[in-house]
Structure formats: structure tokens, C-alpha cells
Write a structure and sequence with these properties.
mainly alpha, 6 helices, elongated
Length: 144
């Protein structure tokens, strides 16, 4: 089935508009995590990452999907109390946010981006630091 290019372009433009809002939400709420556990804030983070994941999946941007999914998983762990916020986790989440934001902004501004899968996997290979924070050595190891 072929999708009308005009409809696809309108859907992409709608996603781009929403993506900017979701990126703003992610950044602001990640920066506010140190203020204490707030279920509304964590739900907001889960919704924003989930929405970015779904929108990116619609256009086949698998690296963005993988990283948004991993962020969503971390936020679920925060909500359930399996993970607690400290400076190291906040730094890691901001780093992940930056690597989610870069290919999205490139796609919005130029209509293309470098292989987001390469960007994600080069940045988020398992490490002792990340494993000790998350309790899962593969949490940010997105598939290629």
C-alpha cells in the first residue's frame, strides 16, 4: 500500500511540532529530577519518551526508537523505585537526551540525519558506571 506523499509530509510535520514539545518536556523534567520523586514529573517523562518512540517508529528511525525506548525504561524504573536519582544518573539521562535530540533536530532542520543507530550505539555501549547506576549492563546498549 502506497501512502500519499502529501499525507506523509503532513504527518511528518505534525510529528516534528510535537517532537519539539516532547524534547522541551524531557529536558526540563530531567533537570528537575534532583528536586525529589514526583510521580507527575516521571509520568511526563514516560509520556514524552513514549511519544517520541512511536513517532520515530512511524518513519523508520530505529536508532531514535531504540534510545527513546531505553529512556522510557529508565523512567519506568524511576517510577517503580528500582532506580534512584543522583548526580551520576542525572548526567547520564542528560547525555542520553542530547543524543536523542541531535538526530531529531537534524531531521527537522535539514530533512535528514546521520545514521541515528550509529550515533546511539557509539555513545551508549555498556560500561561499569552505567551498569552500576542502572543495575542492567545493557540498558543503554541499543541494537544496531
Amino acid at each position: 500500500m502506497t501512502i500519499d506523499p502529501d499525507i506523509l509530509d503532513r504527518a511528518r510535520q505534525m510529528f516534528f511540532q510535537e517532537a519539539m514539545d516532547h524534547l522541551e518536556t524531557l529536558e526540563a523534567d530531567i533537570l528537575a529530577l534532583h528536586r525529589g520523586w514526583d510521580p507527575n514529573r516521571i509520568h511526563s517523562l514516560m509520556r514524552a519518551s513514549h511519544s517520541l518512540k512511536g513517532g520515530a517508529a512511524s518513519f523508520g528511525w530505529q536508532g531514535i526508537v531504540a534510545l527513546a525506548h531505553q529512556l522510557e525504561t529508565v523512567f519506568q524504573k524511576l517510577f517503580s523505585g528500582q532506580v534512584h536519582v543522583d548526580e551520576e544518573l542525572e548526567s547520564l539521562l542528560l547525555e542520553a537526551f542530547d543524543h536523542l535530540k541531535a538526530p531529531l533536530l537534524s531531521q527537522i532542520q535539514t530533512g535528514s540525519h546521520d545514521s541515528e543507530t550509529d550515533i546511539v550505539t557509539q555513545t551508549f555501549q555498556p560500561s561499569t558506571k552505567k551498569s552500576s547506576i542502572m543495575g542492567d549492563p545493557t540498558l543503554f546498549n541499543c541494537p544496531t
